[in-house]
Automatic annotation (TrEMBL):
InterPro entries linked: Homeodomain-like_sf, HTH-like, HTH_AraC
Domain of life: Bacteria
Protein name: AraC family transcriptional regulator
Domain HTH araC/xylS-type: start-end pairs: 181-279
SMART domains tied to this protein: HTH_ARAC (SM00342)
Gene Ontology molecular-function annotations: DNA-binding transcription factor activity; sequence-specific DNA binding
Species assigned in the record: Puia dinghuensis
Length: 286
């Protein structure tokens, strides 16, 4: 009988917000953790690897990792990182001005597509300066509206990161990109129940063809590829880090039958759900 993998849950964070300066911090255990908060990891320099939902990223430096609430991550043992770790909850984000909400949506609603952002020297310097200021604000004696001030810094950081993402993909803040952001918001809320491009297009008031075209321009993936990617990421999390039967996972993701889910999973991963799960048991994930 399969035993589920031991996963650690995050402890509650005061005010749903924290920022921490790391100087050659060593991560000395490899246990997986399920995120209760969103995280922004600014890496100035480092050595080792970070795994998110089973996808491994070698750490080098001059990069940002975005981890969304609900994702499962772990560092390889003895990974060393210098930089900043910022954690925030949705309730803290609500304190940020609403004009930045689309930036959060495009970065975190499909975090798997934005897991790592490479930075040039100018971007690294700008973000480091913002994190320095945010850290100073966070560590200052408490005063009225201090949380609002920190939320304002978070808004600026989020806008900067969204702009880096847009530049990286060669996109711009056009009407198509606004629609793309709205699609990502809808997808994050509905992907377990809504699998069809036409349904999302209808909610946005556009045709399925236009939705797929604008997704291709903004992310180099079709709308269907993005939807399927979200479903596969959730399925992998459930298979790797829970003991739920395949039929329950299929039901949770609104597939008509376990066979339909298995066919979908194998088509997209080249492995059956059972084979994928057994792979992680055989390599001894603890």
């Amino acid at each position: 009988m399969m035993s589920s993998v031991k996963i650690f849950a995050e402890s509650a964070i005061y005010n749903s917000f924290s920022v921490e300066r790391m100087n050659d911090r060593i991560f000395d255990n490899g246990f997986p953790n399920r995120l209760s908060y969103h995280r922004i990891l600014l890496v100035e320099k480092g050595k080792g690897a970070l795994s998110v939902d089973g996808n491994a990223f070698e750490i080098h430096g001059r990069e940002v990792f975005l981890l969304a609430k609900g994702q499962i991550y772990n560092f390889d043992q003895l990974t060393v990182v210098s930089g900043y770790l910022l954690c925030f909850g949705d309730c803290f984000w609500e304190k940020a001005p609403s004009s930045a909400s689309n930036c959060k949506a495009v970065l975190f609603n499909n975090a798997a597509a934005n897991q790592r952002l490479r930075l040039n020297d100018t971007e690294m310097a700008e973000l480091t300066s913002l994190f320095d200021a945010l850290q100073a604000e966070h560590d200052a004696p408490a005063y009225t509206n201090q949380i609002d001030a920190m939320a304002a810094y978070l808004k600026i950081i989020m806008i900067k990161l969204a702009n880096i993402k847009i530049t990286e993909e060669g996109t711009f803040d056009s009407q198509d990109y606004v629609l793309y952001r709205k699609f990502m918001e809808e997808l994050s809320a509905r992907f377990r129940d809504c699998h069809e491009v036409s349904d999302y297009a209808q909610r946005l008031g556009i045709t399925a063809r236009r939705l797929s075209d604008l997704c291709k321009r903004c992310s180099n993936k079709s709308a269907k590829e993005i939807i399927n990617g979200q479903l596969i990421a959730e399925a992998k999390r459930s298979l790797q880090f829970s003991s739920s039967p395949v039929k329950e996972i299929a039901y949770h993701l609104s597939f008509g039958t376990p066979e339909q889910f298995s066919h979908f999973f194998k088509k997209n991963t080249k492995m059956s759900p059972a084979s994928y799960r057994n792979h992680f048991i055989s390599i001894g994930v603890q």
